[in-house]
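Course assignment 3, question 2. Fill in each field.
Student: A.L.
Task: Predict the tertiary structure for the chain below.
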Amino acid sequence: MATIKDTSEMRSVDLSRQFLLAMPGMVAGNLANTVIYICEHTAHGALGLVINRPTDLTVGNLLQRIDLDLSLEIGPVQDTPVYFGGPVQTDRGFVLHAPVGEYSSSIHLGDLALTTSRDVLQEVAQGKGPSQLLVTLGYAGWGAGQLESEMAQNAWLNVTASNDILFRVPPEERYEAALGLLGINSSMLAGEAGHA
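Answer field:
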């Protein structure tokens, strides 16, 4: 596996629609041991959602808190956890979903979309929303060059994202499942970067 020597080599790599996996001992605080789905990565920075930190809040509770009446057809979505999406704008909701719909504030991510407008939650409350969704409060963000610098310091591993892991694997198993996409498991990871 090639090692990135400096951040200028990373600038040409688009990490959109990739999972970032926090390396043990390299990422501290509330992003330690996280799997982050990168929604957008440009020369101006990156935006991602933590996908393995469920909160005590459920989608049903959230819909009630924002005064949306729940339809009887909402079903099991009601008990789906809302996730801690990251430390930025934790009072704001983000919905990663499939299929891609026509909502007033969405970023299209191939076969997924990230929507921040209330209309997607209104459809969910009516039982007509996306069939697959992950709701977060907050997001993880990096300024220009910041993520590239962290990658060069071996703080993160990256791998192409899997919708299966996003929507079907239980949150407590997502880190290991994402590592499995790289053919490794957590027992193989060193707590700090090595030097040759």
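Instructor remarks: The CA atoms of residues 159 and 182 lie 7 Å apart. The chain has a mean pLDDT of 89.
Grade: pending
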